[in-house]
Amino acid sequence: MSTHARPLAVWLAAASDSQLAALFEAHGVRTDSSWSDFFDAAEALLEPASIERMLPRLTLSEATALRRAVDSAAGGIGDPTDASTDGSSALIALALLRPDGIPSPPVVDAVMTRAVLPGVTAVAAAPASEIAEAHAAERAFTSVAALADLLMMARETPLALLTSGNLAAGEKRRLADAGLPVDIMDALIALAGDASLVTTTHRQLRTTSLGDTWLRLTASERWTRLAEAFRRALPRGLHTASGGWLPVPLWEHQHPWDPSWPERCAAIRDRARILGLIAEGDSEPAWAVPIREGHAPDVSALQRLLPAEVDRIFLQNDLSAIAPGPLAPALDVRLRAIAARESAAQASSYRFTAESVSHALASGETASSILDFLAQLSLTGIPQPLEYLVTQTAQRHGLVRVFAEAGSGRTRVSSADDTLLDAMGVDQSLRPLGLSRDAAGLTSRVGRDTVYWALTDARYPATIVGADGQPEVVDRNPAPAAAEASAASYEALIARLRAHQGPDADAAWLDRELEAAVRAKAVLLVEVGMPDGSTRELLLEASGLGGGRLRGRDRAADVERTLPVRSIRSARVFDPSLPPPTTASP
């Protein structure tokens, strides 16, 4: 039993539930910890491994305050009891300083092995030049557009990830083939994760429902969401009291005891740079100032440097479409559900195919909804070849119907075209479905949705039919809800600790000291209160504890003694370097 754990145990018992939860979360305490009482908690929090885990998380101001307190305690320099300034109160809340501002021996030992902290001079962010601002705005525009393309691809087919969380090499090749800037994709994914636009499950990256909503926002609104999420996700050491962040030149010093901080800091700077929050030479564009100061974003300065969005396109006889500028995001998202985009630039081109129109029909569009949308969007009307493609594809769509048979639950495939049924029955790509032909069509033991998507991938005009006989729209990769940040719940742990909190902390601590001594068969220096009010010290080899009595051999008298615990004023492990007590035997 370590005596320095007792002040912390007393502080823990007096702390509020919210203070305890914050402390446990900061130390990474498991919610199912086996601690029985606050003494267990105090000893665990002061274990060297727990302290070593905590020190890298300290900010520069906290580390400086702790180092000052440790140096004062070790060398007697200054006043280590001043816990009101320089981050000391935060260190008390993190159990790295006692309530009196003095570090416990395990903390002193851990801090003394750390490097001396550097002196950091306060600097102000330098304003960016006009040219640097223009470059930053271009990067922001390119990055937001690239992230939108990434989310569109992940919405159609989840992207494979490595165990590190980065994109797999095959996915990067696919993105490169689509003309996306692969070198910033991992940083964009991190930004999207901060904004809950994507989620990762089973090493796959998927677009969330929030990501779907984000795709339909204007370019400036998209950027604002990302910038606000970036600010929220910054580490503690970079935040300011106003809710903003420190000037970028100060970032590299803010977690001095974290060996991984240089790499993390560089990654954060990269994200800020591709978002246009940092310009050349770590200078600051005008639109970054309000965000850094903790205010709501003001994108007016950024908008002036972004290309204007358009809401009209040119439809051409060769089944292509050209947008004379960046198409408004909501229109772009819907158009890309109908046509495949061929090139991405300030003037983008799209191409309509039977496959792209079929995809739109499978997603819930109809021939009339497609033509109405294109008529509103087009500056040149709807060319006859395009209208013909849409109507003919719509007529063919649904020629193959997939549904679950009411009685057996087997999947049935029917069609008015026997030739199609025969073709599906012998199609080698559909062999895993085990399609069996009967008079009414084809049947399979495979699930309805799996059969439907297999037929769709094989380019058969399939549609899913519900129990009511009406076509259903089925999303192959439905957008999951954005994962909410759920803080660890320590309610049960805190309740258990409080349930074992007795009214007499001194008595509880003495019981633990005696139990530990008996288990270790330690020699105790015991102070005993006598009936006449006097006290005596006994050197006792502890051998048992039970029934409110401590048993052990009195070394001075060489006899076995049994002492009532209530009569013991104090007990501590005897230090052999000190002379034994010379009191007479009682």
Automatic annotation (TrEMBL):
Domain of life: Bacteria
Record-annotated Helicase XPB/Ssl2 N-terminal domain positions: 314-437
Pfam families linked: Helicase_C_3 (PF13625)
Name of the protein described by the UniProt record: Helicase XPB/Ssl2 N-terminal domain-containing protein
Annotated organism of origin: Microbacterium murale
